[in-house]
Amino acid sequence: MDPVQALERAAFLLEREQASPYRSQAFRQAASAVRARLAEQPDVRELAAHATALPGVGSTTARVIAEAVAGRTPAYLAELEERAKEPLATGGDELVAALRGDCHLHSDWSDGGTPIEVMGRAARELGHEWAVLTDHSPRLTVAHGLSPERLRRQLEVVEGLREELAPLRLLTGIECDILEDGSLDQEDELLERLDVVVASVHSKLKMEPMLMTRRLLAAVRNPHTDILGHCTGRLIGAKPRPESRFDSAKVFAACAESGTAVEINCRPERTDPPDGLLAEAEAAGCLFAVDTDAHAPGQLSWQVYGCARAAKAGIAAERIVTTWPEADLLAWTGS
After folding, report:
1. Which of the listed CATH numbers 1.20.950, 1.10.150, 3.40.50, 1.20.5 matches domain 3-83?
2. Phi, psi of 103 (to 5 degrees)
3. Per-residue pLDDT, 80
4. pLDDT of amino acid 45
5. Which pLDDT score, from 0 to 100, does residue 266 have?
6. In angstroms, rounded to a whole number, what is the distance separating the alpha carbons of residues 202 and 200?
Protein backbone atom coordinates (compact mmCIF):
# COMPACT_ATOMS: atom_id res chain seq x y z
CA MET A 1 0.00 0.00 0.00
CA ASP A 2 1.24 3.49 -0.84
CA PRO A 3 2.08 5.20 2.48
CA VAL A 4 0.90 8.62 1.27
CA GLN A 5 -2.46 7.19 0.23
CA ALA A 6 -2.77 5.33 3.53
CA LEU A 7 -2.13 8.51 5.54
CA GLU A 8 -4.51 10.61 3.44
CA ARG A 9 -7.23 7.97 3.62
CA ALA A 10 -6.91 7.87 7.41
CA ALA A 11 -7.21 11.67 7.53
CA PHE A 12 -10.30 11.55 5.29
CA LEU A 13 -12.03 9.01 7.51
CA LEU A 14 -11.19 10.95 10.66
CA GLU A 15 -12.71 14.07 9.10
CA ARG A 16 -15.76 12.10 8.01
CA GLU A 17 -16.46 10.90 11.56
CA GLN A 18 -15.96 14.38 13.06
CA ALA A 19 -12.76 13.53 14.93
CA SER A 20 -10.61 16.29 16.35
CA PRO A 21 -9.07 18.40 13.55
CA TYR A 22 -5.71 18.00 15.26
CA ARG A 23 -5.82 14.24 14.64
CA SER A 24 -6.74 14.48 10.96
CA GLN A 25 -4.24 17.29 10.35
CA ALA A 26 -1.50 15.14 11.90
CA PHE A 27 -2.10 12.54 9.19
CA ARG A 28 -2.26 15.14 6.42
CA GLN A 29 0.99 16.75 7.59
CA ALA A 30 2.63 13.33 7.72
CA ALA A 31 1.40 12.58 4.19
CA SER A 32 2.92 15.83 2.93
CA ALA A 33 6.23 15.06 4.63
CA VAL A 34 6.33 11.55 3.17
CA ARG A 35 5.44 12.81 -0.32
CA ALA A 36 8.28 15.34 -0.16
CA ARG A 37 10.75 12.73 1.14
CA LEU A 38 9.87 10.19 -1.55
CA ALA A 39 10.29 12.85 -4.24
CA GLU A 40 13.89 13.25 -3.07
CA GLN A 41 14.63 9.65 -2.02
CA PRO A 42 12.24 7.05 -3.50
CA ASP A 43 13.51 4.16 -1.31
CA VAL A 44 10.44 3.27 0.76
CA ARG A 45 12.38 0.93 3.07
CA GLU A 46 14.67 3.78 4.02
CA LEU A 47 11.60 5.91 4.54
CA ALA A 48 10.01 3.40 6.94
CA ALA A 49 13.22 3.04 8.94
CA HIS A 50 13.55 6.78 9.57
CA ALA A 51 9.95 7.97 9.40
CA THR A 52 9.94 9.59 12.85
CA ALA A 53 12.74 11.90 11.73
CA LEU A 54 10.37 13.53 9.25
CA PRO A 55 8.60 16.73 10.32
CA GLY A 56 5.12 16.07 11.68
CA VAL A 57 5.51 12.27 11.86
CA GLY A 58 4.78 10.77 15.27
CA SER A 59 4.52 7.23 16.58
CA THR A 60 1.04 6.51 15.19
CA THR A 61 1.69 7.90 11.72
CA ALA A 62 5.11 6.21 11.64
CA ARG A 63 3.43 2.87 12.37
CA VAL A 64 0.97 3.46 9.52
CA ILE A 65 3.89 4.23 7.20
CA ALA A 66 5.82 1.11 8.24
CA GLU A 67 2.84 -1.21 7.82
CA ALA A 68 1.97 0.29 4.43
CA VAL A 69 5.56 -0.07 3.22
CA ALA A 70 5.52 -3.70 4.40
CA GLY A 71 2.54 -4.32 2.09
CA ARG A 72 -0.09 -4.55 4.80
CA THR A 73 -3.20 -2.50 5.40
CA PRO A 74 -2.24 -0.47 8.47
CA ALA A 75 -4.15 -1.60 11.56
CA TYR A 76 -5.16 1.98 12.40
CA LEU A 77 -6.59 2.47 8.90
CA ALA A 78 -8.38 -0.89 9.01
CA GLU A 79 -10.09 0.19 12.24
CA LEU A 80 -11.23 3.45 10.64
CA GLU A 81 -12.49 1.62 7.56
CA GLU A 82 -14.52 -0.72 9.76
CA ARG A 83 -16.15 2.19 11.56
CA ALA A 84 -16.90 3.85 8.20
CA LYS A 85 -19.14 0.93 7.23
CA GLU A 86 -21.79 2.42 9.51
CA PRO A 87 -23.90 4.86 7.45
CA LEU A 88 -23.80 8.50 8.53
CA ALA A 89 -27.54 8.88 7.98
CA THR A 90 -30.51 6.80 6.88
CA GLY A 91 -32.90 7.81 4.12
CA GLY A 92 -32.40 9.86 1.01
CA ASP A 93 -30.48 7.16 -0.86
CA GLU A 94 -32.03 8.12 -4.21
CA LEU A 95 -31.02 11.74 -3.72
CA VAL A 96 -27.48 10.71 -2.77
CA ALA A 97 -27.27 8.67 -5.97
CA ALA A 98 -28.53 11.65 -7.98
CA LEU A 99 -25.92 14.10 -6.65
CA ARG A 100 -23.51 15.56 -9.17
CA GLY A 101 -21.71 18.20 -7.12
CA ASP A 102 -21.41 20.43 -4.07
CA CYS A 103 -21.89 24.22 -4.13
CA HIS A 104 -20.16 25.11 -0.86
CA LEU A 105 -16.64 24.13 0.18
CA HIS A 106 -13.64 25.93 1.67
CA SER A 107 -9.88 25.65 1.28
CA ASP A 108 -6.86 26.93 3.20
CA TRP A 109 -7.24 30.21 1.31
CA SER A 110 -9.80 31.16 3.98
CA ASP A 111 -10.76 29.07 7.02
CA GLY A 112 -10.42 25.58 5.57
CA GLY A 113 -7.41 23.49 6.50
CA THR A 114 -6.59 21.95 3.13
CA PRO A 115 -5.17 23.13 -0.21
CA ILE A 116 -7.55 23.64 -3.12
CA GLU A 117 -6.18 20.74 -5.14
CA VAL A 118 -6.63 18.30 -2.23
CA MET A 119 -10.26 19.35 -1.80
CA GLY A 120 -10.75 18.93 -5.54
CA ARG A 121 -9.23 15.45 -5.59
CA ALA A 122 -11.44 14.39 -2.69
CA ALA A 123 -14.55 15.64 -4.50
CA ARG A 124 -13.47 13.73 -7.62
CA GLU A 125 -12.89 10.53 -5.64
CA LEU A 126 -16.40 10.81 -4.19
CA GLY A 127 -17.72 10.73 -7.74
CA HIS A 128 -18.66 14.40 -8.12
CA GLU A 129 -18.77 15.77 -11.64
CA TRP A 130 -18.25 19.32 -10.38
CA ALA A 131 -17.62 21.20 -7.14
CA VAL A 132 -17.66 24.89 -6.28
CA LEU A 133 -14.85 26.52 -4.30
CA THR A 134 -16.48 29.11 -2.02
CA ASP A 135 -13.94 30.67 0.31
CA HIS A 136 -15.04 33.61 2.44
CA SER A 137 -15.30 37.28 1.46
CA PRO A 138 -13.20 40.15 2.91
CA ARG A 139 -15.48 41.19 5.78
CA LEU A 140 -14.98 37.89 7.59
CA THR A 141 -11.44 38.63 8.75
CA VAL A 142 -11.55 35.91 11.42
CA ALA A 143 -11.87 33.41 8.55
CA HIS A 144 -9.14 35.12 6.48
CA GLY A 145 -11.69 36.26 3.90
CA LEU A 146 -10.45 36.96 0.39
CA SER A 147 -9.81 40.55 -0.64
CA PRO A 148 -10.54 41.34 -4.29
CA GLU A 149 -6.84 40.96 -5.05
CA ARG A 150 -6.59 37.55 -3.40
CA LEU A 151 -9.79 36.37 -5.08
CA ARG A 152 -8.37 37.35 -8.47
CA ARG A 153 -5.25 35.31 -7.70
CA GLN A 154 -7.42 32.37 -6.64
CA LEU A 155 -9.27 32.47 -9.95
CA GLU A 156 -5.94 32.03 -11.72
CA VAL A 157 -5.03 29.11 -9.43
CA VAL A 158 -8.34 27.37 -10.12
CA GLU A 159 -7.85 27.80 -13.85
CA GLY A 160 -4.41 26.26 -13.52
CA LEU A 161 -5.85 23.18 -11.78
CA ARG A 162 -8.43 22.38 -14.48
CA GLU A 163 -6.36 19.71 -16.21
CA GLU A 164 -5.01 18.17 -12.99
CA LEU A 165 -8.49 17.71 -11.49
CA ALA A 166 -10.21 16.44 -14.65
CA PRO A 167 -12.73 14.94 -15.13
CA LEU A 168 -13.95 16.90 -12.10
CA ARG A 169 -14.82 20.48 -13.04
CA LEU A 170 -13.78 22.82 -10.23
CA LEU A 171 -16.04 25.86 -10.46
CA THR A 172 -15.29 29.32 -9.10
CA GLY A 173 -17.35 30.79 -6.32
CA ILE A 174 -17.48 32.58 -3.01
CA GLU A 175 -19.36 32.48 0.28
CA CYS A 176 -20.14 36.17 0.34
CA ASP A 177 -21.11 37.95 3.55
CA ILE A 178 -24.50 39.62 3.56
CA LEU A 179 -23.77 43.03 5.07
CA GLU A 180 -26.13 44.79 7.45
CA ASP A 181 -27.93 46.61 4.64
CA GLY A 182 -28.30 43.44 2.57
CA SER A 183 -25.53 44.24 0.10
CA LEU A 184 -22.86 41.68 -0.77
CA ASP A 185 -19.31 41.86 0.52
CA GLN A 186 -17.36 41.78 -2.76
CA GLU A 187 -16.91 43.84 -5.90
CA ASP A 188 -19.72 43.48 -8.44
CA GLU A 189 -17.21 42.92 -11.22
CA LEU A 190 -15.80 39.89 -9.42
CA LEU A 191 -19.20 38.51 -8.46
CA GLU A 192 -20.12 38.70 -12.13
CA ARG A 193 -17.09 36.57 -13.05
CA LEU A 194 -17.80 33.79 -10.54
CA ASP A 195 -19.72 30.64 -11.43
CA VAL A 196 -21.66 30.44 -8.13
CA VAL A 197 -22.29 32.91 -5.30
CA VAL A 198 -23.46 31.65 -1.91
CA ALA A 199 -24.64 34.58 0.24
CA SER A 200 -24.65 34.09 4.01
CA VAL A 201 -25.06 36.14 7.19
CA HIS A 202 -22.14 35.84 9.62
CA SER A 203 -22.48 38.98 11.75
CA LYS A 204 -25.15 40.69 13.88
CA LEU A 205 -27.17 37.48 13.89
CA LYS A 206 -29.38 38.83 16.68
CA MET A 207 -30.57 41.73 14.54
CA GLU A 208 -34.19 42.79 15.13
CA PRO A 209 -36.46 40.52 12.98
CA MET A 210 -37.84 43.27 10.74
CA LEU A 211 -34.32 44.48 9.92
CA MET A 212 -33.04 40.93 9.37
CA THR A 213 -35.95 40.31 7.00
CA ARG A 214 -35.04 43.41 4.98
CA ARG A 215 -31.41 42.33 4.99
CA LEU A 216 -32.19 38.84 3.65
CA LEU A 217 -34.71 40.11 1.10
CA ALA A 218 -32.16 42.49 -0.38
CA ALA A 219 -29.58 39.70 -0.58
CA VAL A 220 -31.75 37.01 -2.19
CA ARG A 221 -33.06 39.54 -4.74
CA ASN A 222 -29.54 40.59 -5.69
CA PRO A 223 -28.94 39.28 -9.23
CA HIS A 224 -25.50 37.99 -8.19
CA THR A 225 -26.89 35.76 -5.41
CA ASP A 226 -27.44 32.14 -6.42
CA ILE A 227 -27.83 30.44 -3.03
CA LEU A 228 -28.90 31.65 0.42
CA GLY A 229 -26.44 29.94 2.78
CA HIS A 230 -27.33 28.55 6.26
CA CYS A 231 -30.26 30.96 6.53
CA THR A 232 -30.75 31.05 10.31
CA GLY A 233 -27.07 31.00 11.29
CA ARG A 234 -27.88 28.67 14.17
CA LEU A 235 -25.47 26.27 15.83
CA ILE A 236 -26.52 23.17 17.77
CA GLY A 237 -24.61 20.79 19.98
CA ALA A 238 -21.79 21.66 22.37
CA LYS A 239 -21.64 25.37 21.48
CA PRO A 240 -25.21 26.32 20.61
CA ARG A 241 -26.28 29.59 19.00
CA PRO A 242 -29.94 30.53 18.55
CA GLU A 243 -31.55 31.04 15.16
CA SER A 244 -31.74 34.49 13.64
CA ARG A 245 -35.33 35.69 13.52
CA PHE A 246 -36.91 36.90 10.28
CA ASP A 247 -40.16 36.69 8.31
CA SER A 248 -39.54 33.33 6.68
CA ALA A 249 -42.68 33.51 4.51
CA LYS A 250 -41.45 36.71 2.87
CA VAL A 251 -37.88 35.51 2.48
CA PHE A 252 -38.76 32.13 0.97
CA ALA A 253 -41.33 33.73 -1.33
CA ALA A 254 -38.59 36.06 -2.56
CA CYS A 255 -36.25 33.11 -3.07
CA ALA A 256 -38.86 31.30 -5.14
CA GLU A 257 -39.63 34.42 -7.18
CA SER A 258 -36.00 35.29 -7.89
CA GLY A 259 -34.81 31.71 -8.41
CA THR A 260 -32.41 31.86 -5.47
CA ALA A 261 -31.84 28.40 -3.96
CA VAL A 262 -32.12 27.77 -0.23
CA GLU A 263 -29.12 25.89 1.11
CA ILE A 264 -29.64 22.71 3.09
CA ASN A 265 -26.42 23.01 5.06
CA CYS A 266 -25.12 19.54 5.95
CA ARG A 267 -22.70 20.44 8.72
CA PRO A 268 -23.94 18.50 11.78
CA GLU A 269 -23.53 21.54 14.04
CA ARG A 270 -25.67 23.64 11.68
CA THR A 271 -28.40 21.39 10.19
CA ASP A 272 -29.78 24.62 8.76
CA PRO A 273 -32.57 25.42 8.00
CA PRO A 274 -34.37 23.62 10.85
CA ASP A 275 -37.12 21.17 9.87
CA GLY A 276 -39.97 23.66 10.21
CA LEU A 277 -38.33 26.23 7.96
CA LEU A 278 -37.26 23.54 5.50
CA ALA A 279 -40.92 22.53 5.15
CA GLU A 280 -41.88 26.19 4.62
CA ALA A 281 -39.28 26.61 1.89
CA GLU A 282 -40.49 23.44 0.18
CA ALA A 283 -44.10 24.64 0.28
CA ALA A 284 -43.03 28.05 -1.10
CA GLY A 285 -41.65 26.35 -4.22
CA CYS A 286 -37.98 27.14 -3.61
CA LEU A 287 -35.01 25.53 -5.25
CA PHE A 288 -32.48 23.92 -2.90
CA ALA A 289 -28.74 23.19 -2.74
CA VAL A 290 -27.60 20.29 -0.55
CA ASP A 291 -24.18 21.59 0.47
CA THR A 292 -21.55 20.30 2.87
CA ASP A 293 -19.90 23.61 3.76
CA ALA A 294 -16.84 21.36 3.96
CA HIS A 295 -13.64 22.72 5.52
CA ALA A 296 -11.75 19.42 5.10
CA PRO A 297 -11.88 16.62 2.49
CA GLY A 298 -13.64 14.04 4.67
CA GLN A 299 -16.45 16.49 5.35
CA LEU A 300 -17.43 16.32 1.68
CA SER A 301 -19.09 13.00 2.51
CA TRP A 302 -21.56 14.80 4.80
CA GLN A 303 -24.01 15.42 1.93
CA VAL A 304 -25.85 12.29 3.05
CA TYR A 305 -27.11 14.25 6.07
CA GLY A 306 -28.75 16.86 3.88
CA CYS A 307 -30.13 14.31 1.44
CA ALA A 308 -31.82 12.44 4.29
CA ARG A 309 -33.44 15.69 5.45
CA ALA A 310 -34.47 16.68 1.93
CA ALA A 311 -36.09 13.29 1.35
CA LYS A 312 -37.95 13.52 4.66
CA ALA A 313 -39.24 16.96 3.62
CA GLY A 314 -40.48 15.53 0.31
CA ILE A 315 -38.18 17.63 -1.89
CA ALA A 316 -37.90 16.26 -5.41
CA ALA A 317 -34.45 15.78 -6.96
CA GLU A 318 -35.20 18.17 -9.82
CA ARG A 319 -35.55 21.02 -7.31
CA ILE A 320 -32.08 20.34 -5.87
CA VAL A 321 -29.41 22.12 -7.93
CA THR A 322 -26.66 19.83 -6.62
CA THR A 323 -28.25 17.03 -8.69
CA TRP A 324 -28.03 19.06 -11.91
CA PRO A 325 -25.43 18.59 -14.66
CA GLU A 326 -22.82 21.33 -14.84
CA ALA A 327 -24.34 22.88 -17.95
CA ASP A 328 -27.75 23.22 -16.28
CA LEU A 329 -26.20 24.62 -13.10
CA LEU A 330 -24.25 27.26 -15.01
CA ALA A 331 -27.24 28.16 -17.18
CA TRP A 332 -29.20 28.77 -13.96
CA THR A 333 -26.51 30.83 -12.23
CA GLY A 334 -25.83 32.72 -15.45
CA SER A 335 -29.49 33.73 -15.68
Report:
1. 1.10.150
2. -95, 5
3. 98
4. 85
5. 98
6. 6
